[in-house]
Amino acid sequence: MDEQMKMFEEYARLLLEEAQAPGAAIGVARGGKLLYQKTFGYRNREEQLPLSLDTVFGIASITKSFTCVAIMQLQEAGKLSVHDPVIRYLPEFRTGDDELTKRITIHHFMTHTPGMAPMPYLDGAMKRSMEQDPAIIGTEAEEELKTVPYLDTYEEVLQAIAGFEGKPLSEPGEAFSYNNDAYGLLGAIIERTSGQTYEQYVKQHILQPLGMQRTVFAVEELADKDDVTVLYTNKKVDGNNEVIAAPYWHDAPAMRAAGFLKSTVNDLLRYLQIFRPDAENNRANILSSDSIRQMLAPHARCDGHRSYGYGLMVSPAFPEGLMLEHGGSLKGISSHIFSVPSMELTGVVLANLDGVSVRELVVALLNTLAQRLPAAPLYTYAPYELASEQLSEYIGNYRSAEWLNTVIEEREGKLQLLVDGLAYPLTPVDKDSFVFKRRDSTVWIDFFRDREGKVVRMSYALRQLTKASDKAEGEK
Length: 476
Description:
By secondary structure, the chain is an alpha+beta fold. It has helices at about 1-20, 65-75, 100-105, 105-110, 120-130, 140-145, 155-160, 180-195, 200-210, 255-260, 265-270, 280-285, 290-295, 360-370; strands at about 25-30, 35-45, 50, 55-60, 230-235, 240-245, 260-265, 300, 305-310, 315, 325-330, 335-340, 345-350, 395-400, 405-410, 415-420, 420-425, 425-430, 435-440, 440-450, 455-460, 465-470.
């Protein structure tokens, strides 16, 4: 195993160097006992301060699973049902279609399937913190931020959603598209049903019972504020990319339920115990085994590899059996948690720079523990033939109101995805489904058709993007 782990650590070192990540911390437990730990780099690059498994990092969207644990606790207490309509608790909730709105349930919010198109409101919820961030001043993001309204309260988020002009993607439950806005509103539902603020509820009913003393929404709450990472981000300086210290934490009081907890490797390993089937005693005061089963059910298909439960990804096709996982990304944050019940494994990877391929580290680590090479592919695909005349059906510009824009074009008889200034050749693997390679990751995308059979949307980065034109005009 030592030689195997050396191969993993070399792989991890090269990946982190390529990303220019100042620091990362990794911890893996087997049967609840620490199996492997490793830190790379520093929590503070300039002062070369070391990392530990108790160093506090941002965890971003890993927060969503905590939000779902809270919802399930409230269901156990008889205060709500996940199948209740959202308007029972948020009567002012509106989409562009009143009849559709009535059919959207809490379950749809938890599984990213309310049928709502991607929305741009997370930046509005973060605006007050972003406009004070020195890392944003003088960038294009600062100018774009000026056009975004302040969304400081749940009521303002609800008003913004009510005024959103984008068309629904589908009936509730029919289309998976990652939705931070819906998760932010789960925080409002928790507040209205529990009589506590979202933050107080999570602290009292999840963090404190599990002994997660270094998991907080604001680092100012920590008794020991020393072992907290500095945040870093990429910034263009004189035309060149540089990784700069950007210690100002972004916050979104009206969307904290979507992704604003801070935590440590040790605390998250403790938290992951509640999802182990053999760990009844660890969750006795947190959630029932039935609630855990509901959280881990594959409620909504994300892509050909993964489904979504409640606040967690569920990957039934992982080589060693079911894998549970979730990642997170915000400025200065790349995070990932995982659990493979058949191997009794739980694990955490945290980095203090956004844009780090931490899921590749997770896959490499699991490959290593299964005696495979770190970069071994997880999946194989049978050849799928696509007639050349079919390629034109997919070509076009795909847009969302959030932050994603992509282009599909044809080059030398193959489809290519253009995104973030890069081009990726697409390989067909099923009807309307393709994969492409990005570093050592295999990324799956689907195309969706209307009732007449015309391609109208595609999935990318867990979102559904709408086809804006049938011509590939290049990215804008």
